[in-house]
Amino acid sequence: MNKRILVTGGAGFLGSNLCGRLLEQDHKIVCMDNFSTGSWRNIAPFLDNPNFSLLKHDVTEPTLLDIDQIYNLACPASPVHYQADPIATLKTSVLGALNVLEMAKLRNIRVLQASTSEVYGDPDIHPQPENYWGNVNPIGPRACYDEGKRSAETLFFDYQRQFALPIKVIRIFNTYGPQMQLADGRVVSNFIVQALTGQNITIYGDGMQTRSFCYVDDLVSGMVAMMNSGADVVGPINLGNPEEFTMRELADIVVEMTNSRSRIIHQPLPIDDPRQRRPDISRARQSLDWNPNVALRDGLVRTIAYFEDMLAEQTRAAS
Ligand code: NAD
Ligand code: UDP
To answer: Of 99, 209, 304, 312, which is most buried with the most CB atoms under 10 A?
Structure first.
């Protein structure tokens, strides 16, 4: 059945990919965004679609809409952006969660929280299962995001316990793909843009830290499967691709795939940068029958093509 669905953060990287998928399924979408890290370009293809409406609104301000489901994605996700105004980041996570939960309670509808692998901090357990409570520095520069997302999870589970609200919580591991901003600041977009423009490729630290990279289409399939799963599937559920790479390996792959002449250089490792990350996705496999299908090199082919287009557009606009 077609639904009226609110996507907060719908002009961002994941949000715009999610809006696209839900529109393909003939749902009516309300995209709420304050455009702090999102872009008009991401939603431009939807603006003529009568099933798409845009609400320029800050999720920290309460609102009530006539909707059937909520995906709560509003929050900057790149360390550079979430650390630029840490207080705003914490408010977005906590007040944003509170506001969507209140709306869901008044409407008695499902609400899905886009949580993160950052709730595991710099993990002592590897790979990370959902019952691991994490190793987070509560007062460091990443805390505005990590603790904000942890508090948001707390609110979600308290609304479930206190009001029997139908919540869904996913913990997203590093995801990449088209619709990321050129200046997003995360590693995949940085390396690709640097490689395509002949700039130095900046590895932070020795590059032996690891991450597991999920292609956006796989992630969106997991999100939608979670939202539409049985009432007993509440989460938290890890969503990510368990293939694990060091940042050195990633840099080498990107250089090779772009035939780049960029030099790899090293810059200081940011404070509290997690040493390793890899999701245990047994729960997602069992509960959602979900598995990521796109291997890193296949996802990078599509992402490199996207950034080539973005850079060509930029050059055309400048000339
Ligand atoms: P993004 O920065 O591209 O998108 C975030 C969107 O939220 C942007 O459009 C931004 O303008 C909007 N936004 C920010 N603050 C807002 C506010 N106060 N009110 C309204 N809109 C606001 O990031 P993304 O990668 O698309 O991440 C989306 C969500 O997924 C975030 O909640 C993030 O924490 C979560 N997540 C993403 C990843 C990933 O690898 N991409 C990993 C873990 C979790
Ligand atoms: N990183 C890097 N060079 C960059 C950007 C990031 O080496 O230009 C590293 C960063 O220090 C981290 C990893 O890549 O170890 C992933 O960083 P990202 O910002 O993508 O996400 P995180 O998982 O840290 O939130």
So the answer is: 99
Does the Cβ of 247 fall within 6 Å of ligand 2?
yes
The residue to which tokens 């020795």 are assigned: 206
Mutation probe of ligand 2 site: the residue of 13, 137, 149, 211 with most atoms within 8 A of C-beta: 211
Mean pLDDT within 282-309: 98
| C-beta 76 within 6 A of ligand 1 | yes
For the entire predicted model, the pTM comes to 0.98
What CA–CA distance (Å, rounded) separates 202 from 193? Answer: 11
Nearest CA to ligand 2 atom 12: 273
Residue of 82, 120, 145, 176 with catalytic role: 145
With a 6 Å cutoff on the Cβ, whether 249 touches ligand 2 is no
DSSP string computed for 170-234: EEE--EE-TT--TT--SHHHHHHHHHHHTPPEEEETTS--EEE-EEHHHHHHHHHHHHTS-TT--
Does residue 240 have its Cβ closer than 6 Å to ligand 1? no
> pLDDT tens, 94-127?
999 999 999 999 999 999 999 999 999 999 999 9
Does domain 4-176+214-242+278-294 correspond to CATH entry 3.40.50.1100?
A: no
210-212/244-246 β-pairing: antiparallel
Specify the 3-state DSSP secondary structure of 128.
strand
Confidence band of 21 (pLDDT split at 50, 70, 90): very high
**pLDDT, tens digit (0-9, with 9 covering 90-100), for 158-192:** 999 999 999 999 999 999 999 999 999 999 999 99
Residue ranges of domains in the chain = 4-176+214-242+278-294
Cα(109)–Cα(165) distance, rounded to whole angstroms?
Answer: 8
Which atom belonging to ligand 1 lies closest to the Cα atom of 60? Answer: 18
| 93 alpha carbon – ligand 1 mean position (Å) | 10
